[in-house]
Amino acid sequence: MRVQGHLFAWVAVFMLAVAVVYGLWSKEPVGTTALFLSFGLTAMIGFYLIFTARRVDTGAQDDKDADVADDAGELGFFSPHSWAPLVLGAGAAAAFMGPVFGWWFLYFTAPLVAIGLWLWVFEYYRGENQNQ
After folding, report:
1. What is the C-alpha to C-alpha distance for residues 60 and 62, in angstroms, rounded to an integer?
2. What's the Cα-to-Cα distance from 46 to each of 21, 40, 128, rounded to whole Å?
């Protein structure tokens, strides 16, 4: 994980340099903003990976003498399948069309967003995934 973190950190430094040069040379605000946002996103991912690599054990990807089988075993907890993100995404997509068609459209999409959010938050309190 440390290698990936440093890779993202170097990409962030490169994106910052490109954003500064592009912004000064072209004076075009949209591309400059996109490059600065790309710098911010890669810096956040790099920071997270480097910070997390300090707290977890060294993985097989960080060991130069590791075999593929060294990384076998349990990788962590993953949520079971869920329809809640699809409902929430559809509601959010419809809600973001509100300014396009009219703010009145939000009155019809707000319940869909609320239902999707409720389903996702309370996913482990009902059905077969319920904790006992």
Report:
1. 5
2. 22, 10, 37
